[in-house]
Design goal:
about 800 residues, alpha+beta, Agglutinin, subunit A, 5 domains, six-stranded mixed beta sheet, 16 helices, 43 strands, globular, membrane, glycoprotein, transmembrane, Ser/Thr_kinase_AS
């Protein structure tokens, strides 16, 4: 009986300890969370904060993060700032005794882990300040999330010399954006942006100027966010420099946070702890005061995209397109705007400037970076006329008896009420007519058509009227059947918002397929311009397929939808398709900087930083195709010609998914080999099963081309044949320790020998003859990014089969 009582008491005690451990936020070693909809989280004692996988509904990914759990929108306060985060469903995080928190993908590959501490982890702790802490057996803090801030700092969190906050790409896109805040060693807090990722030039647009060169003995050495919600800078003498408002409400009533928002503004927010209805975060303080003006940077580096206008609301930038312009990407309101007309100097002959163009008149708009000519003195009338008669002029601004002509792209646009200027925005009468905003646009042609029909009826005989009515009924029936067909096609594309184009539309858009951008195994690509939406006129690339079966409508549409469902920043986006009679065409977004082949094999060697950035981007895109998109794909033709470059030279994989379309081709080759000479994996020749490892092989060859800036197979002079095959040459140089020979005279690479060796070893691992020895693209991506160690590869031993 006593024994039973003892066991009961012991059970109650253990139960109490477990409850206490859960209530005080403590977590035992071995605790695990898995990314899924109903995944649990690790709560702080009060329940204010949660640590775990936050489900991002937009792309069905999960963000390993800390968030405010009592607020309906689950505001994120911290997240793992890693290219691998967000993660796919089924990923997990475990609290490990040796490495702390370890994030793994569904296959068990390590994506991220805590580091920078010594000793063993005894337990974890999610506290009520939003700080996740690792403690050792002596309860000493050995790691904390506060020491690795992402884009937000919270009360009781400090910034020390060198601390950095990085912005996101957007409010819902947690990849690293183009802004960062840094606390400098001189005691200044600065905001900077790298306007062009490949340039390496940081543009500073805010500086606290809190350092005092005359008093170096009393420097600012901390940025403090105290428990009452006050944000200030602290000097060695304990003097303070206030940043946030002094009069803030009690921290017991309000949550506070300071965040570097994706738009580049460092903002101090408050939110009531107890609320009813849909309460939101309130802006209490922000720097810079006017980001539209302060973020002046390089051309195109403003708060808003090119040709856009920036205005302020509560110190936050609001971006709008001027009249006659629409967003290039309707889903990116901070992006660039495009004119609704073509502007060129090859106009219709025998037409005057007044016949071709007119202007919309506005005031107080300013684009400071786009001037190319000043006329002084000049009247408003003369300024307008000068712009109309100049084929390069997009906007003219008249002010103080002077005229400034500006050409596209218009950079760093903003409202400037202090300038008292008259602005003339030019538009083409031929491409688009000005619309009366009160009437919703001209309808004169419809009216003329109606009048013409009425005239025919009133002026014709009864017999002719009967014939006319019969013809009209027949015509309506034809139109009705055609619309039914089009409706069916549109329904097939509803899931992906793809547009179904008619062949006539695409012929007109490409000027009857006049300008050829390139050609490959799937067909020819033409440049065109069309309205992807009702108002958005943009350049497009139209691929005319020539190897798809003509009687497989359902299969074609299914594969087009599959391609259309992909959504990744390193893939070229499919905008629509044409399936009409014998015509099969795909419409893609246009990439202005051409192919990777033209960049690598041109007269000028691109920077090493840009090349490594491109290689990493391609790897991420292939990871998405192989593992993360709703219908995983094997590309089958990775090569420089199929890697396109966007405005900022980000790599975008094209032609993905087209191999699936070839599966419905009625005239397949006997070997079924797909790909391009030099990039084809050996297993294509062996009648064995083809897996995603064929793309890994092709990527390996491509990576070596990116490193060396030379083609895989080159024609060489007699006596130089040893270097004709790139993979052979790379292996020889690697074995003999002569990697310098691969990048001769490329001094930027020679100063980064460690990364050069790593990239070469990754390339050799990818081109192994045995597919089982090749890493997956996810592992390749992690090796490129330094997450996974790269060991010395074996000899590829495949050269005879790649020529």
């Amino acid at each position: 009986m006593a024994s039973a009582s003892f066991r009961l008491s012991l059970f109650i005690s253990m139960f109490s300890v477990c409850v206490l451990a859960q209530n005080d936020g403590s977590l035992a070693v071995g605790s695990t969370l898995t990314a899924k909809e109903a995944s649990s989280s690790w709560l702080s004692p009060s329940g204010d904060f949660a640590f775990g996988f936050l489900h991002l509904q937009e792309n069905d990914r999960f963000l390993l993060s800390i968030w405010y759990d009592k607020i309906p929108d689950k505001t994120v306060a911290w997240y793992v700032d890693s290219p691998s985060n967000p993660v796919p469903r089924g990923s997990s995080v475990v609290l490990d005794a040796q490495t702390g928190l370890v994030l793994r993908d569904p296959g068990g590959v390590t994506l991220w882990r805590t580091d920078g501490f010594s000793g063993a982890v005894n337990h974890g702790f999610m506290n009520d300040t939003g700080n996740f802490i690792l403690k050792d057996i002596n309860y000493t803090w050995i790691w904390e999330s506060f020491g690795f801030a992402s884009d937000t700092i919270l009360p009781l969190q400090e910034l020390v010399y060198g601390s950095v906050l990085n912005s996101r790409q957007s409010e819902s896109n947690f990849t690293r954006g183009r802004f960062y805040l840094r606390f400098l060693d001189d005691g200044n807090l600065v905001l900077r942006t790298n306007s062009l990722p490949s340039s390496g030039n940081d543009t500073e647009y805010y500086n606290s100027h809190t350092s005092d060169p005359k008093n170096s003995s009393d420097p600012v050495y901390r940025v403090i966010f105290n428990s009452t919600g006050s944000l200030y800078m602290l000097k060695k003498s304990n003097q303070t420099i206030q940043l946030s408002p002094l009069s803030v409400r009690s921290a017991s009533e309000y949550y506070y946070r300071a965040k570097l928002d994706f738009d580049g503004v460092f903002t101090y927010y408050s939110h009531p702890r107890n609320f009813t209805g849909n309460s939101t975060w309130t802006v209490l303080w922000a720097v810079p005061e006017d980001i539209c003006s302060d973020l002046d940077g390089v051309p195109g580096g403003g708060a808003c995209g090119s040709n856009s206008i920036c205005s302020l609301v509560d110190r936050k930038p609001v971006c709008e397109c001027p009249k006659g312009y629409t967003l290039l990407d309707p889903y990116d309101k901070y992006g660039s705007c495009m004119p609704n007309f073509n502007q060129s100097c090859g106009e219709v002959e025998k037409l005057s400037a007044e016949d071709l163009y007119d202007t919309w008149v506005a005031s107080d708009l300013y684009w400071p970076k786009s001037d190319y000519e000043e006329i002084s003195p000049s009247t408003e009338t003369g300024c307008r006329k000068a712009c109309l008669e100049d084929c390069l002029c997009a906007v003219a601004i008249s002010r103080n008896n002077s005229c400034w002509k500006k050409k596209l792209p218009l950079s760093n646009g903003r409202i400037a009420t202090n300038l008292s200027s008259k602005v003339f925005l030019k538009y083409s009468k031929i491409d688009v007519a000005p619309q009366n905003p009160c009437l919703g646009g001209p309808k004169s042609k419809d009216r003329e058509t109606l009048v013409l029909v009425e005239s025919v009826f009133l002026g014709s005989s009864l017999f002719l009227n009967i014939l006319f009515i019969g013809a009209a009924c027949f015509g309506f029936q034809v139109i009705y059947q055609k619309r039914k067909s089009n409706f069916h096609l549109h329904n097939e594309a509803v899931e992906t918002n793809l547009r179904i184009f008619s062949y006539k539309e695409l012929a007109k858009a490409t000027n009857h397929f006049e300008e050829e951008l390139g050609r490959g195994s799937f067909g020819i690509v033409y440049k065109g311009e069309t309205n992807v939406s009702l108002t958005n006129k943009i350049n497009v690339a139209v691929k005319m397929l020539d190897r798809v079966a003509r009687d497989a409508e359902k299969e074609f549409l299914a594969e087009v939808n599959s391609i259309g469902q992909t959504n990744h920043k390193h893939l070229v986006r499919l905008l629509g398709a044409c399936y009409e009679n014998q015509h099969r065409l795909l419409v893609y977004e246009y990439m202005p900087n051409g192919t990777l082949a033209s960049l690598l094999f041109g007269d000028t060697i691109p920077s090493w930083k840009l090349r490594t950035q491109i290689a990493t981007g391609i790897a991420r895109g292939l990871v998405y195709l192989h593992e993360e998109c709703s219908s995983p794909m094997i590309h089958c033709d990775i090569k420089p010609q199929n890697i396109l470059l966007d405005d900022y030279y980000n790599a975008r994989i094209s032609d993905f998914g087209l191999a699936k379309l070839l599966q419905i081709n009625q005239s397949r080759t006997l070997t079924n080999i797909r790909g391009t000479r030099g990039y084809v994996a050996p297993e294509w020749f062996r009648n064995t099963q083809i897996t995603s490892k064929v793309d890994v092989y092709s990527f390996g060859v491509l990576l070596l081309e990116i490193i060396c800036c030379r083609r895989h197979v080159e024609d060489v002079e007699v006596g130089e044949g040893g270097n004709s095959i790139l993979t052979d040459w790379v292996w020889d140089c690697f074995q003999e320790g002569r990697l310098d020979a691969l990048v001769e005279n490329d001094f930027e690479v020679l100063e980064d020998r460690k990364k050069l060796q790593k990239f070469v070893m990754i390339g050799i691992w990818c081109i192994q003859e045995d597919p089982s020895l090749r890493p997956t693209m996810r592992k390749v991506s992690h090796m490129l990014e330094g997450i996974v160690e790269v060991v010395v590869p074996p000899c590829p031993s495949h050269f005879f089969s790649t020529i």
